[in-house]
Structure formats: C-alpha cells, structure tokens
Design goal:
By secondary structure, the chain is of the alpha/beta class. Helix 9 crosses helix 11. It has a 7-stranded parallel β-sheet with strand order 3-2-1-4-5-6-11, with helices on both faces. A 3-stranded mixed β-sheet has the order 12-9-14. The chain has a two-stranded parallel ribbon with strand order 7-10. The radius of gyration is 19 Å and the shape is globular. Helix content is 40%, strand content 20%. The chain contains 11 helices and 14 strands. The chain binds nicotinamide-adenine-dinucleotide (NAD).
Length: 326
C-alpha cells in the first residue's frame, strides 16, 4: 500500500479528469502536488484545495521542462499520475506537431524525471484510440495490429511504448490505462459539452458532427477513479513491471442517443437535428473512430466493475454540467 503521508504527483491536475482525481486523492489523505500549464485546464477546478493548503500547485509546462528540474519536484514521491496531455483528437489531425510535443515529448520528460528521482510507479492515462478502427469489438488489450487513425492515438501509443521500455530498463512499475470516453463534472471538451453549448446558443437546432450512428462506450468519472484504485493496488502487489488495462463500460451508445439525453435533460422539445458527416462514411471528423467498445474482462477479473451504464453516466454528466442536483 502507498503510505498516506507520502506525496503523490498529478500532472494535468487542473483538467477534467485530473481535478477529479486530485479531489479524490486529497479526500483520502494524500499530499498532492499538481503540475499543470493551464493550457486546457482551469485553476478554478482546484482553487479551493489550493486555498485550503491541501495541495501544492506548480504551473509548469512539461514539454519545455528540463528533466533535472522535474526530478526535484518528483524526489519525495512514490507515485506519479501522468495525465497532462492535449486531449483534442481533432486538433491532432490538423496540427500533428502540437500533439507530438504535448503528448510524446512531455511524456518523455516525465519518464526521465521518474528515472532520475527513483519514482516507484507511473500511472498513465492512455486511450482507446490506440486501437484505431479495431476489427474486433469489444476490443481486448492484446488486440493487434495497433494502428491508430489519429495523431492523438499514435502519440498515446508512442508514449505507451516509451513507458514500457523505461519501466523495464529502469525498474519502476508502469500502469497503462486505455480509457473509453470519460464523462462527469469539470468536463470541458467532448460531445456532451459541445451539445450543451450549441443548445444554449440555439435551443431549436442541434448540429451533430457525423451521421449520428457513431457508437461508443462512456464511463462516469467516479467509475474511473475506482478503476485507478483497483489497478494501482494490483500492480503494486504484482511481480510485473507493467500492466495495461482497458477501462470502459460493458455497453455503448450512439451520438444520436447522447443528443436525445442532452435535449431531455435541458427540457427542450422539437429540436431539429442537423447531421454533418466529416467523412464519407459518416464519422464526425477525420481521425474519429466510429465504433468503440472495449473488452473489460481483464479489469473485471481483478475485482472492478462499472457502477453506471454508458447512458446513465452521460445523464449524470449532463446534469452536473447543467448545475442540476445529481
Ligand atoms: P483535460 O484537457 O481536461 O486535462 C489535461 C490537462 O493537462 C489540462 O489541465 C492541461 O492544462 C494540462 N496540460 C496539457 N499540456 C500540458 C503540458 N505540456 N504541461 C503541463 N500541463 C499540461 O483533459 P482530460 O479529459 O482530463 O484528460 C486527461 C488525460 O486523460 C489525458 O491524458 C487524456 O489524453 C486522457 N484521456 C481522456 C479521455 C476522456 O474521455 N476525457 C479519454 C481517454 C484518455
């Protein structure tokens, strides 16, 4: 077990998943150091914790930091949760260089600092996008070949490979979590946020990127947090250097079904849906995986299961984002 008095690091801790994780860890009694450059994250997500002195916030850009400088920050920490990344799949296709620096170079700098500081465990939030257009659904962790269809997915896969080799060469443990779509409070990007923004602007018409039949798996943030706990506990006890887990739901929903939930929760009627396919086969944009369902038998075999279905997770997230009582 990790000792409660020890520091843990959360990179990207001012972002959506990061701020929820920081809150969760703080509630459990950990001393958390947050590293974030606030590019897509917001200090307001964690300001109360900073003001109460419960966390230490360091504004740093991981793509420019010197590993030796980062080593000082990591030096008293056994666990580093590396979440900082540019999560915008669409941006990665039009601006690949940004994703290389923000996802691959930043991860390399984190790995170097882990090596120099003697960190015990690195937890990495990878993505279902490493599977690309998988021919097998639900897709298991050992699916191959891994052919991502976006630079974002390729950058996650490159990072996974660096992490695995570092963990083997330098003797720390690596936990790689391939996440489905995560939804919940503090979310700032993704389909739900897009729909709510558009419907607040115009409650009569909703532009839906893609043909609406894209079908994917969604997981509530609270389920992700319990998955992180279970898998971290597992790897700490395991003799393996690294483990890869899919973290997602048993089911999936279409984009059209998500639109229906958002419209319902906003109390709207007769909204006209306008579908805008970004590709000939009805994806939202180039690089958008149209069908995603992860095989979660590996993680369920070690004692975790999701509490909420995809549809319920989405409904809860919409309510939270609308400021309704959940
Ligand atoms: P987010 O944008 O809300 O959080 C990312 C955080 O990283 C932000 O606070 C941002 O300011 C910070 N950051 C970005 N580049 C940085 C840099 N160079 N230096 C320091 N900080 C930097 O995104 P999120 O949805 O919370 O995603 C968190 C992680 O989970 C990311 O690695 C993302 O790729 C991964 N992930 C998310 C989902 C999802 O559905 N949200 C799914 C799969 C994987």
């Amino acid at each position: 077990m990790i000792c409660l008095s020890e520091d843990v690091i959360v990179t990207g801790g001012a972002g959506f998943i990061g701020s929820n994780l920081v809150r969760y860890l703080t509630n459990k009694g950990f001393r958390v150091k947050v590293i974030d450059n606030l590019s897509s994250g917001n200090i307001n997500n964690i300001k109360d914790l900073v003001n109460k002195g419960l966390i230490n916030f360091l504004k740093m850009d991981l793509k420019f930091i010197k590993p030796n400088e980062l080593k000082q920050v990591f030096s008293n920490s056994r666990v580093v949760y590396h979440l900082a990344a540019n999560p915008e799949v669409r941006v990665s296709v039009v601006n690949p260089q940004v994703h290389f620096y923000e996802n691959v170079v930043a991860t390399f700098n984190v790995l170097e600092a882990c090596r120099l500081a003697g960190v015990d465990v690195l937890v990495f939030t990878s993505s279902s996008t490493v599977y690309g257009d998988a021919k097998k659904l639900p897709t298991p962790e050992d699916y191959h070949p891994l052919v991502p269809i976006s630079i974002y997915g390729a950058a996650k896969l490159a990072s996974e490979n660096l992490i695995i080799t570092y963990s083997k060469l330098y003797g720390f443990k690596a936990l790689i979590l391939r996440l489905a779509n995560i939804v919940g409070p503090y979310q700032t990007h993704g389909v739900i946020v897009d729909f709510i923004r558009k419907l607040k602007r115009n409650p009569k018409v909703l532009e839906i990127l893609g043909d609406g039949t894209q079908r994917k798996s969604y997981l509530h943030i609270s389920d992700l947090l319990s998955a992180i706990d279970v898998t971290l506990d597992y790897i700490l006890k395991s003799s393996m250097n690294f483990e890869i887990f899919n973290v997602g739901n048993n089911d999936w929903v279409t984009v059209k079904e998500i639109a229906d939930i958002v419209v319902d929760e906003m109390g709207l009627n007769n909204v006209k849906y306008v579908f805008r396919p970004g590709t000939k086969d009805g994806r939202g944009w180039v690089g958008d995986v149209k069908f995603m369902l992860l095989d979660i038998s590996k993680i369920t075999s070690i004692g975790w299961k999701p509490k909420y279905s995809s549809a319920t997770a989405i409904r809860l997230a919409v309510r939270a984002l609308l400021g309704k009582k959940v």
